[in-house]
Amino acid sequence: MNPPASVRYEGRQAPVAMVVKGYPRLSETFIAQEILALERAGLPIEIWSLRRPTDGAVHDLHRRIRAEIHYLPEYLYQAPIRVLKGLASAIRQPGFAAFRAQAWRDLRRDFSASRGRRIGQALVLARELDPAVRHLHAHFLHTPASVTRYAALLRGDAFTFSAHAKDIWTTPDWEKREKIAASRWGVTCTRTGLGELRRLSPEAGPARVDLVYHGLDLARFPPSPERLAARDGRDAGDPVRLVSVGRMVAKKGFDDLLAAFARLPADLHWHWTHVGGGELKAALRAQAETLGLMDRITWRGALPQGEVIEALRDADLFVLPCKEGDGGDRDGLPNVLMEAATQALAILSTRYAGVPEFIDDGREGVLVPPADPAALAEALATLARDPARRLSLGRAAEAKVRASFSFEAGIRDLADRFDRVARETVLRP
Predict the structure, then answer these.
(1) Angle, to 10 degrees, between the axis of helix 113-128 and the axis of helix 143-155?
(2) What is the DSSP letter of 238?
(3) Tens digit of pLDDT for each residue in 125-183?
(4) CB 75: neighbour CB atoms within 10 A?
(5) pLDDT tens profile 25-74
(6) Quick check: 202 pLDDT over 80?
(7) Which domains does the chain have, with CATH numbers?
(8) Are 392 and 335 in contact (CB under 8 A)?
(9) Beta-carbon count within 10 A of 43 CB
């Protein structure tokens, strides 16, 4: 059993409760990178996850994080005692009346099993958090922020958030607006996302939501390889090596990429490696089979960071044709683009979401319109046949990520924000 809060945190800052949807996740290394850096900056953290991990592997980043990890019941029927204890405790919480009113208001607008789970998870979180914890921070503005907001409301705690991509574009406007208003502050990682959140909360002022790029901890990446290979697609025995890293979901545009591959000239020799899992795995493989592409594709599945980097170092061109996905889902600024840039790898992507905030078309990479297989095929063929241009684009991308997208500035900003909340918050007796 943990000692009382007055003993655990005497003379030092109580931890921030970091609420995430799932932990650890291979596709969310940007969160792990941030948590590790904030720990190193002196911020104590507890991780509260709405789901248990489903990936078969973990990054080395996760192994270096010291934060305690707690799992809330993903489905309430799996832990009825925890939920009932949370409900009984809620009645004695200082914000119970406000919580009850907010939960009822939200249920009237969104009467769903998902909403009920969020409320139940918040009851458990509010009860099981150490009384010394006074600051809750949610990663993602949809489900994690709902649970975090309800729990903070019950306990009378500070609530802040980081918004990323899907959560911005798939959460109803009324819900985003109210969460922003209820928070101390929020950050997001692209200018397009920032514009959307500020549009919803003009009365809150620009200080309520601000831009903090994820950036990269460049120390995690080896120096870029010496890229002297001149593959130009003419040698069937040494084809141009294409690589993509990303979950097999609609917004990544891999269906467009397969359609583009089918349009490439017959005399152009290429091989594509895909890294990542996802719900469209069977559909994409079936599409590749129908198009007669399977002998030119290697499906590697989800990989730990070290093997992802090796795949990037071995490739000639990185391709990620982002577009709008199901229900308005979209990317922000995919970290994998910056990771590819650390290895001086030329990038082909789309003029969509936060991608142009990192890549100037024709300078650090090539951008085509989203959901346009014909334009994608033309760019693929051009870059495959021009190794000198690929080298130039890759070097420019590496220079930009190292000059402008290191994550140190963002971590300093976040550490200062968390420190201000800690100074403004009076510890419970």
Answers:
(1) 50
(2) S
(3) 999 999 999 999 999 999 999 999 999 999 999 999 999 988 999 999 999 999 999 99
(4) 11
(5) 877 888 998 999 999 999 999 999 999 988 777 778 888 999 999 999 99
(6) no
(7) 5-214+407-424 (3.40.50.2000), 219-404 (3.40.50.2000)
(8) no
(9) 21
Edge-to-edge strand ranges of the sheet holding 240-245:
297-301, 270-275, 240-245, 317-320, 346-350, 366-368
Q: What is the pLDDT of residue 31?
A: 92
Sequential DSSP letters for 192-222: HHHHHHHHH-GGG-TTTEEE----B-GGGSP
The DSSP bridge partners found for residue 51 are 22
What DSSP element (H or E) covers 400?
A: helix 387-404
Residue in 334, 355, 372 with CA at minimum distance from that of residue 246: 334
Quickly tell me which residue has 């789309």 as its tokens: 350
Identity of the amino acid at 5: A
Task: Decide if pLDDT at 189 tops 50.
Answer: yes
Contact 213, 189 (CB under 8 A): yes
Residue with tokens 């979950």: 247
**Do 273 and 390 contact (CB within 8 A), yes or no?**
no
